[in-house]
Write a structure and sequence with these properties.
By secondary structure, the chain is an alpha/beta fold. It has a 6-stranded mixed beta sheet with strand order 3-2-1-4-6-5, sandwiched between helices.
Length: 232
């Protein structure tokens, strides 16, 4: 992680506090906070939730706050939630007048609220084609001076991040079904099944917020049972 440390140190020489957009249970965020906490006086971690108050997320936040006393977590609705509300996604309470919010909006709001200029993200070029294109346009593929945003993991692979976590004895990232990530997508059957098996109270909260997720589970169960019966 030498390159990531070099990038972080470059920003730490300019300021002693920063924002970190943290997914709580994701590998990139876990590694990022461990890299950043020793180098800043204060790290304000912004967790963007799809469903508020989930136990399996809060245990990661509690672990991080215990390990890094200079890290503060704030929880805000994910920018996707604004479009969910506007269009009534999966049966959530709809408000057609809801203004669509972007990640840039949330970043700017956090900057104003905490008086912090620089924002860090765990984006990597290997995450997607869009991120490869975006990050490839920035200085040294990691720093955007114009927007005061920093991406220290830009050139790393998932295997690099997981190796760092293992090497440093950090909390292991959550695996939702087949996803080794923080993909808490409420329309993802893998995530819903994982909640049902491991955190049923959290599943209840998801269903209460997005009622049609219950139908996704019902249809999955029906299909699974039908296919099982057909084999006998």
């Amino acid at each position: 992680m030498e390159r990531a440390i070099e990038v972080i140190d470059g920003i730490a020489r300019r300021t002693d506090m920063t924002l970190l957009f943290h997914s709580a249970s994701g590998k990139d965020s876990i590694a990022m906070l461990d890299l950043m906490a020793p180098r800043f006086r204060r790290v304000v971690c912004v967790y963007m939730y799809i469903t508020k108050g989930l136990e399996h997320i809060n245990r990661y936040i509690k672990w991080a706050q215990t390990r890094y006393p200079n890290a503060t977590f704030v929880q805000v609705p994910h920018y996707a939630v604004s479009s969910y509300i506007k269009y009534g996604f999966l049966g959530c309470k709809q408000n057609p007048k809801q203004r669509i919010v972007t990640l840039a909006d949330i970043t700017d709001l956090a900057r104003r609220q905490y008086g912090i200029e620089w924002a860090f993200f765990g984006f990597k070029q290997t995450d997607s084609l869009n991120r490869r294109v975006m990050l490839g346009t920035y200085e040294q593929e990691a720093v955007c001076e114009k927007t005061k945003k920093c991406y220290p993991l830009s050139t790393y692979k998932n295997s690099d991040v997981l190796a760092y976590i293992e090497r440093n004895g950090l909390i292991k990232p959550e695996r939702y079904g087949t996803h080794q990530s923080a993909r808490t997508a409420v329309n993802d059957i893998g995530y819903l099944l994982w909640l049902r098996e491991n955190f049923p109270n959290d599943l209840d909260k998801v269903i209460a917020t997005y009622p049609l997720t219950e139908r996704i589970l019902f249809e999955y169960d029906y299909k699974t049972e039908t296919e099982r019966d057909a084999k006998h």
